[in-house]
Amino acid sequence: MEEVEVNEEELLSDENGNYAYLTLGGHLYTPSYLELIDHNKCEQCEKCLNMCETRGIDEEGNIVPEMPEICNGCGHCGNICPANSIVARPIPLEEMKRRVKRYKELKSK
Ligand code: SF4
Ligand code: SF4
Q1: Ranges of the chain whose pLDDT falls below 70
Q2: Are residues 12 and 20 in contact, defined by beta-carbon separation less than 8 angstroms?
Q3: Residue 32 belongs to a domain
Q4: Is residue 98 part of a domain?
Q5: Residue of 34, 39, 40, 43 best suited for mutating to test ligand 2, as the one with most atoms within 8 Å of CB
Q6: What is the pLDDT of residues 68-87, one digit of tens each?
Q7: How many domains is the chain built from?
Q8: R_g over Cα of the chain
């Protein structure tokens, strides 16, 4: 997957202060990022794994941690889970800035 350079100063937020971006049609869209999987409820069906384009979930069903460039915020995993064991949520702008900063730090090592 091609990496996207993110300029912290240009990050947008919606009316609730969550990170958002403009779609090609000019609409403000608020993505929902993978937050956690409740492994007590998970039925191991692997639907989430199979449909995740960015592999925000790894082969063991673990969440790849805190990198918005990995989880693209599509929210599909949470929508498809038959056991209702996935939580995805919008991310406050300040949290997104911290994630971007951390990602850049990790990349520069
Ligand atoms: S929200 Fe989308 S990109 Fe992120 S882990 Fe779920 S399916 Fe993958
Ligand atoms: S879709 Fe839900 S039940 Fe299926 S493997 Fe993923 S977390 Fe588990």
Answers
A1: 1-5
A2: yes
A3: yes
A4: yes
A5: 43
A6: 778 889 999 999 999 999 99
A7: 1
A8: 14
